[in-house]
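About this split. The held-out portion is used to measure sequence recovery: a designer receives only the structure tokens and must propose an amino acid at every position. Recovery is the fraction of positions where the proposal matches the reference. Here is one held-out target exactly as it appears in the evaluation file.
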């Protein structure tokens, strides 16, 4: 029997047709790792809001913490498609692990690759790429979420240092990271053009961590506020030059949205996988519920939107690898895939019925994890503004 006649489990097989041999191997390896090492403790880690220290170390050993970092800086030297595949497969099992990897890669390592000098790459990037160091990215503040240019954190030059003062919030990896990329105002008269980017090791004096946030989802990924009180940052930790921070942040977030889109895709794929299996086994009124039209409609919609999400993500990733503009494509991928994740997870819970509401099945976690993909690294509303702007400028 031909593969396209083997029922509903065709999505994974079809995607093989557009992946290179290397990309297919990367996908397979990531799937095997996630199933073997992330799956067993995922529910417990979520319940206890426990950071996956051992698993992150293992992912560092596999090269997953520096996927797109060139080999000369101890990275894996892979392309963005491979990055997306790895994040998808990890997030399919544990979306918390997925965002830990995504942030370290796209919001931290990528800044060093694109804007760091050789000293900064030697001192920090190598450790980040191997997993010996963990990075965080801090742009948002209590008064400035989507309006990131409304920034109050300041960095004043003082001889061979910058004096950093202010508060950042929603910092993913904030508790367990070794360093943070911090955006701060160096010239208040220039508005967003006066924002600069700094590498701030967490062992510096003047850094105070706020409480770890008690979140709805992605609970084993830590999030916290970080307060800076006359923190002295060495001048050599300025990234690029003064006034470049806002541009660096926006350009970096484009790539970050590929990572979050892939996280959302992994969540949605998990919802489809679980829905298919359960619907075939669960019997009501003398038949498996997969035979009911309402269930088939949900599964059909999941599969179609997942495939569309994957193509949008891979298109943005391909454009990035070709060094072509991909702002619009990344925004489209994030907007669509995050909605797909939310819809798929909700439908999955509905298919499971009362069992879907119980923690033991791991289905309600998908629903909780999916929601944040519509919020962080640019809300759906912000993505839609970006898409409209890009389309109207053409």
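Reference sequence for scoring:
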């Amino acid at each position: 029997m031909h593969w396209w006649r083997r029922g509903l489990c065709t999505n994974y097989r079809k995607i093989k047709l557009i992946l290179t041999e290397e990309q297919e191997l990367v996908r397979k390896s990531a799937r095997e790792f996630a199933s073997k090492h992330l799956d067993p403790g995922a529910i417990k880690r979520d319940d206890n809001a426990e950071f996956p220290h051992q698993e992150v170390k293992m992912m560092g050993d596999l090269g997953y913490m520096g996927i797109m970092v060139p080999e000369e800086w101890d990275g894996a030297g892979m392309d963005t498609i491979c990055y997306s595949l790895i994040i998808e497969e990890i997030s399919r099992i544990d979306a918390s692990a997925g965002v830990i990897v995504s942030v370290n890669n796209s919001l931290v390592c990528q800044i060093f690759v694109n804007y760091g000098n050789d000293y900064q790459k030697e001192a920090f990037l190598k450790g980040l790429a191997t997993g010996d160091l963990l990075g965080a990215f801090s742009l948002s503040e209590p008064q400035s979420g989507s309006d990131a240019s409304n920034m109050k954190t300041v960095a004043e030059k003082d001889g061979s240092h910058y004096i950093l003062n202010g508060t950042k919030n929603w910092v993913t990896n904030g508790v367990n990271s070794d360093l943070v990329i911090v955006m701060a105002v160096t010239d208040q008269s220039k508005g967003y053009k006066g924002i600069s980017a700094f590498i701030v090791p967490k062992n510096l004096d003047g850094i105070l961590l706020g409480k770890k946030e008690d979140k709805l989802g992605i609970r084993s990924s830590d999030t916290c506020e970080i307060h800076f009180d006359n923190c002295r940052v060495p001048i050599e930790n300025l990234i690029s030059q003064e006034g470049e921070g806002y541009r660096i942040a926006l350009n970096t977030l484009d790539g970050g949205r590929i990572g979050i889109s892939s996280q959302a895709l992994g969540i949605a794929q998990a919802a489809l996988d679980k829905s298919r299996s359960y619907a075939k086994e669960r019997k009501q009124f003398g038949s498996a519920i997969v035979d009911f039209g309402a269930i088939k409609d949900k599964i059909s919609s999941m599969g179609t939107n997942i495939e569309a999400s994957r193509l949008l993500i891979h298109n943005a990733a391909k454009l990035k690898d070709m060094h072509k503009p991909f702002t619009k494509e990344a925004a489209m991928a994030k907007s669509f895939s995050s909605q797909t994740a939310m819809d798929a997870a909700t439908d999955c819970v509905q298919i499971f019925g009362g069992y879907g509401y119980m923690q033991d099945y791991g289905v309600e976690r998908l629903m909780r994890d999916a929601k944040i993909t519509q919020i962080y690294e640019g809300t759906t509303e912000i993505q839609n503004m970006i898409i409209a702007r890009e389309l109207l400028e053409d």
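Annotator remark: The domain at 246-393 is CATH 1.20.140.10 (Butyryl-CoA Dehydrogenase, subunit A; domain 3).
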